[in-house]
Target: Selenocysteine lyase/Cysteine desulfurase
Amino acid sequence: MTFAPELMTAIRARFAHVETCPFEGERIFFENAGGALTLNAVVETSARYAAIPDNQGRANGASRALMAAIDRAKADMRVLLNAPEGAIFVGESGTELLFRMIRDACLGAPEGGVVLGSTVEHPASRSAAARWAEVTGREHVWVKHDDATGQVTPEAYAAAVTPEVRVATILHTSPVTGMAMDVPAIAAAIRAEAPEALIVVDGIQHACHGRIDIAGADIDGYAISPYKMFSRHGFGVAWASDRLTALGHDSLTGGPVGAWELGTRDTGAYATLSDVVAYFDWLGAEVSGASDPRQRIEAAGAAIHAHESALTDAMLFGTDNLPGLASLPGVTVIGGADNPAREGLVSFWAEAVPASEIVDRLNEAGIRTHLRKADHYSGNILEPLGQTGCVRVSLCHYNTLGEVRAFLDAVRGIL
Model:
C-alpha cells in the first residue's frame, strides 16, 4: 500500500533534488542504494554548523551549545536504533567503523578459534574479517548464501557455527540482491553454540528502510553510513556494546575511558543525525496515532516497508497496462521475483541487451539506475550466477508509483 497523495507530496517536499539533478536536469532517482536523497533540514544544519568557529570542550556558551548538540544527537540515535545501552560514535565512514569494530573484536577475543562470516556480505565486513582473521592467526569461515534467494539464512549459520567462533559478522541487507537477513535469528543461532562470540552487523544498506532494533538482537556492533540514511557524506555512525567497548582499542593515553572517537569530530555531522531522527518521528506521527517517539519510529518503518513493497511489486509484476520485469522475455531477477525479504531494490539482467547498455539508455531517458559489475563489490553475488553485470534499481519511500510506471515504459522500449 503506497502513501496517500497528500502525504507523498509532503514527504518529497522534505528532500533536496527529488525530481531534478543539479547537473543534468529532470530525472527519476532510482539509485538510492548508492546514496539516498538528502533531507533539506540536513543541508541547512550542515551549513549552519560549518560556520561556527568555536571548538568543543571549551568554557564558553558556543562550545557548550556544540556539546549539547552532540549529546542530543546521541540520545536521538538511541531512540532510532532502540539502543538504550552501549556507545554511539561517529567516524570516517560506515566502512571504516566496521573495520575498527571487527579489528578490535578479533584482537580482543580469546586466542584461537575462528572468524565466521557469509558470502553475501559487502566487502566492507568481508575484507575486515578476512584481514583480521589472518593477522590474529584464525581461519575465516564463510557461510554460503543461497544464490536463488539472494540471502543467507539462520539455518545456514547454525549449520556452520561451532563453539570455536570468536567473532562473527552479519549483513543486514544486501546492496546487490536487496534482500534483508534475519539478524536476531542469525545472532541467536550463533549464540546457541558460541555464546561469547562478538557479533558485528553491517547495517549500511538497511538503515534508510527503517526498522532497526538493536535491543531485540543480541549483537555487539552495528554500523551505518548516514549518506545512505538521508544525511550527508563524510562520516559514519556506529553503535558498540559495552562488552566490545571494554576491549582495547585506539584511544588517547590518559583520555576518557571507553572513548571511541579520535580527535575532534564534526558537530554538524552529529546534528544532522537529529534531523534524520526527527524526520522518522514526523513520518511516524503522520501514519499512526502513537505518542511515544520509539513507537512513532516503528510506525514509520512499517509504513516505509509497505510503500516500498508496493513499488517493487509494481516494478516486478506490472501496474495498469504495463508488464512488470518478471513477465518480460529473457529477464532474470536476482533473488527471484516473489521474495518477501526484498527491501526496496530490484537487480536484474536481460538476455537480449547488456546490463551496461540498459543503464545507459535509462539514463538517457532521465531514469538514474546503476550498473553492478562482477568486481570486488558485487562479484560474490554475480559470479556464482554466471553474470558479468546487472542493472540495480534501488527505490526509497519518496519514490512514486508514477516513477515506476515511467521506468517500466522505458525498459519495455529498450528490450
Q: What stands out?
A: The chain has two domains: 5-37+302-414, 44-277. The longest strand covers residues 165-171.
